[in-house]
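Q: Sequence in, structure out?
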Amino acid sequence: MENVYYFYNGTDKPCEVELDEIIIQDSLMGDMLESFWEDHSDYETDKDSRYNDAMGITYGVLRNPTLQDFQDINGYHGLSQEDYLEDFLIYSFA
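A: Exactly. Output:
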């Protein structure tokens, strides 16, 4: 299975990204692309859940994310679990 990466920082809907086209900027830290690639290399062979725990909050990059991964980002930013995730929620009505 090929990995799928998403960018999500709790300010808009998650979007699928290609890592070779990614730009990581922070308003305080500036260009974070070098540190992103270093950390990506460190966690690249780990399970998706560990990768996402390490990379999700710092860079907003998630690999093969679950709904819970997105909701964890929302929780970190003080959002409700559903904010910006309408496309990923499955509703069932009894």
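The radius of gyration is 14 Å.
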